[in-house]
Amino acid sequence: MNDIDFYIEGIQQLPAIVEKNPKNQEKLAEAFMEFMQLCHLYESAIEVVKTYLGILDSEFNMKFQRNPIHNIESRLKSAESIMNKLQKKGLAITPDNARKNLLDIAGIRVTCSFISDIYVLAEMLTHRDDFVVIKQKDYIKHPKPSGYRSYHLIINVPVYLAAQKKYAPVEIQIRTLAMDFWASIEHQLKYKPSTAITPEISEELRICAEQIAETDMQMQKIYSEINNLG
To answer: Which residues contact 120 (CB under 8 A, 6 or more apart)?
Structure first.
C-alpha cells in the first residue's frame, strides 16, 4: 500500500471526522489534502535530520577513520494513528492541532557502537543553530525503572518549502547497539498479547539491562584504551 492509499484509508476509517456520503466528498478531499501536506512536512523534517546525521557520520569517518553511526531508522505515524491520538486527547481532529499538540509524529532512531558516540551526536544536534530543542532526556545516565536506556531528543526542524519555512518536531532516540538489542526484545515481550509480564519477569528484564549496560561500559573502556582516550 502506498502513502496515498494509506492516508485515504486512515481518513475513511474514521466516519466521525468525515461521513462517507456524496454531500461530503468535498470535505473528504480537503481533509485528505491537509493530511497529505502534514505528511509531506514531517517526512521532509525527517529527511533534514537524516541528511545532517549522514554529514556528521562521513565527517567523523574522514577525521577518525570510523563511523559513529551504525544505523538510522525513521518512522512516520499514520493518519489514522494521528487522528485517534487527537481524539483521545479530546482535541479537534485537524492537521493544525496535530502540529501543535503531538510531538511524536515523526521519529528517528540512531544506533551507535559506543556510548561516547551518542553524546557527540547529541551535542551536534542540540548546538545546530537552526534546530530548536523542545525536550531532552538522558535515559543512559538516568535509566527508566524498567532498565531502559537511550538518549531522547525532540527537536523542531526547519523545512524550507516552495513558499515558506515551516517547523516540525522530530523525536530522536540515540542508543548503542546493546541498548537497542535490549529495547527491541523487551518491547516484543511486553506487547505480546498472550504474555502476562509478572513482577518477577520485569525484574529479570531489568537485571538483563544492567548486565548489558556493564558490557557497554566495558566496550567503551576497551575502545578508550586502544585509542589512548581514557
So the answer is: 60, 68
